[in-house]
Write a structure and sequence with these properties.
alpha+beta; wza like fold; Outer membrane lipoprotein wza fold like; 6-stranded mixed β-sheet; 7 helices
C-alpha cells in the first residue's frame, strides 16, 4: 500500500473521479429507464387507439354531459344533510315541469340543468336552513325527444321514456318501409358523448358525432353490439334504398330496389327484368357506374353469356349502376328474315287455297 502524505491532493482527485463516474452511471441508468418508460407509453397508445380527447367540443367518452335540461316526467333525487330520509325519496317532474321540494313546495325545474336546479333549491331553502347543501341527482330520463326521419312508417319527433336502443326507436316509428336502405345514420350532440361506433366521425363544425350501422346486420343479429342505446336529441336517419337499372334488350326494362342489401348480382337483376330477349347480344353487355369524384359514368365490359354458362363469376351491381344489354344486329336481321319468310309463306298458302 502506498503511503500518502497529509495535504496531498491525489486522494481527493481519485475520490472526485469516483464520484463523477458514479454520477455518470446513475444518469445513464435513469436515461435508459425514462426511454423505456416513454417507449412503453407510446406503444400502448398505438396499440389501443382512442377517440381524440382534444376535440374542440369535448371528449368522446360517451358520458352524459351536465348540459342536459330537465323536462316533464324526469325523475330526480334530492338529498342533503338537512333533509330526512322521507324527503330524499326520488321525485318526478309533473307535466308542467314542476318539482315538489320539502319546505319550499312546488318549484319549476323544467329547462334547468342539474347544477342550476341545485343552485335554485339551495337559494330557496336558505330562507329556512342556514347554508343548505342540497344535491340533485338525475335518476331517470323520460323527457327525451328523438327525431326519426326517412323511410319509416311514422317519421317525426318521438318522446322517449327510459333508455331505448336503436331498434326499439325504429319500432316506435312504425318500423321501416319496403323502400328503406341498408344503412342507418345516427347523429348525436357532443354533450351526450360520441356515437359508440367504430366508424363514428365529427361534422365539419365539430358539434356533432355521426355514425352509421348496417340495418340488415342488426336485424339478423350478426352485430348485436351495433344496436346502440339512443340518447336525447339524437337524429336517426333511414335513407331510401338505392336502385339498380336494367335497360336494353330485356323483356322488362326498369329500376329495381336494392332494399336492405348493398348490392345485387347481374343474374338477379336479369331475373327481375324477366330475362333476355332472343336478339340480345350477351357477349357485349356493359355496366355503367358513376365515378367516385365525378358525375360521369365509366363503362365496365361484361360477358353475360359466360356468366349464364358458369364460365365466369356473377358480378355484383352497386347502387345507381346501369346494366345495359345491347341487341345483336345479326340476330335481329335473321329474325326479320324469318318473320318475312313466314309472312310470305302464309300469304302464298292463303292465295292457293280453292
Amino acid at each position: 500500500m502506498k503511503s500518502v502524505t497529509p495535504g496531498s491532493s491525489i486522494p481527493l482527485a481519485q475520490e472526485a473521479g469516483c464520484v463523477f463516474s458514479a454520477v455518470k452511471s446513475i444518469v445513464r441508468i435513469v436515461s435508459v429507464g425514462l426511454a423505456v418508460f416513454f417507449f412503453a407509453i407510446d406503444a400502448a397508445g398505438q396499440g389501443n387507439p382512442r377517440p381524440p380527447t382534444d376535440h374542440p367540443r369535448g371528449k368522446c367518452d360517451g358520458q352524459m354531459r351536465s348540459t342536459y335540461l330537465l323536462g316533464p316526467d324526469d325523475e330526480v333525487e334530492i338529498s342533503g344533510p338537512e333533509l330526512d330520509e322521507q324527503a330524499t325519496k326520488p321525485s318526478r317532474l309533473d307535466g308542467n315541469g314542476n318539482l315538489q321540494v320539502p319546505l319550499v313546495g312546488r318549484v319549476h325545474a323544467a329547462g334547468l340543468t342539474v347544477q342550476e336546479c341545485e343552485q335554485e333549491l339551495n337559494k330557496l331553502l336558505s330562507a329556512y336552513i342556514r347554508h343548505p347543501e342540497i344535491a340533485v341527482n338525475l335518476k331517470e330520463l323520460r323527457s327525451q325527444p328523438v327525431s326519426i326521419v326517412g323511410a319509416v312508417n311514422s317519421p317525426g319527433v318521438h318522446q322517449v321514456q327510459g333508455q331505448k336502443t336503436l331498434l326499439e326507436m325504429i319500432s316506435m316509428a312504425g318500423g321501416i318501409r319496403p323502400d328503406a336502405g341498408y344503412r342507418v345514420r345516427i347523429t348525436r350532440r357532443l354533450e351526450w358523448g360520441c356515437v359508440p361506433l367504430p366508424n363514428a366521425t365529427f361534422d365539419a363544425a365539430g358539434n356533432l358525432s355521426i355514425g352509421e350501422v348496417n340495418l340488415k346486420d342488426i336485424l339478423e343479429a350478426k352485430r348485436p353490439e351495433e344496436n346502440i342505446p339512443i340518447s336525447p336529441h339524437d337524429v336517426i336517419s333511414v335513407p331510401k334504398a338505392e336502385m339498380v337499372y336494367v335497360i336494353g334488350d330485356v323483356k322488362r326494362s326498369g329500376g329495381f330496389v336494392l332494399g336492405q342489401h348493398e348490392s345485387m348480382s347481374v343474374l338477379q337483376a336479369l331475373s327481375l327484368a324477366e330475362g333476355l330477349n332472343g336478339t340480345a347480344d350477351t357477349r357485349h353487355a356493359r355496366i355503367l357506374r358513376l365515378n367516385t369524384n365525378a358525375d360521369q359514368r365509366m363503362e365496365i365490359a361484361l360477358n353475360v353469356k359466360n356468366i349464364l354458362n358458369g364460365k365466369s363469376r356473377d358480378v355484383p351491381l352497386l347502387g345507381d349502376d346501369i346494366l345495359f344489354i345491347p341487341g345483336s344486329i345479326g340476330k335481329k336481321t335473321t329474325l326479320r328474315a324469318i318473320e318475312a319468310a313466314i309472312q310470305t309463306g302464309s300469304g302464298l298458302a292463303i292465295w292457293r287455297m280453292p
